[in-house]
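Why does residue order matter? Because the sequence determines the fold. Keep that principle in mind as you read this record.
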Amino acid sequence: MIQVGDTLPTATLMEYMDVEGEGCSIGPNPVDVGKAAAGKTIAVFALPGAFTPTCSAKHVPGYVEHFEAFQSAGVDEIWCVSVNDAFVMGAWAREQKTAGKVRMLADGSAAFTQATGLTLDLTGRGMGLRSNRYSMLVKDGKVATLNIEGPGKFEVSDAETLLAQATT
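Structure:
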């Protein structure tokens, strides 16, 4: 399992863009995790699935709401990672109004999630292999803080907790 001090795993996530900008075409675009994290401070949070109750009502909205505070704390980007496809993440981004605030990154095959060791098996609930709920502050590709939720919990991966860690 990934730990504080570890480098983010080598992986490619996918991001759906509604509009062209900064060399990104409309549609799913690959995001090389290592290249995208290089030289930046990133607030990363992961969750079991797009459009799920806690994720939609609490997790994503908290990061959207605190976007400016994260910027003031020196965070360059906020990433939301979920084991969903890029089209689902794009639709969820529109619904959650994350544009310009939170990058909604799809881990469709769960390669990144498996490489972190932070998987959650929801096969019994018909959802298959998913990501555990967690947050981390990443500096230049290395994990500076890591907050992993217990089963069914939403207590330490919220925006307020990670923001407090980013400002210390």
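Helices lie at 33-37, 53-65, 67-72, 86-96, 111-116, 159-166.
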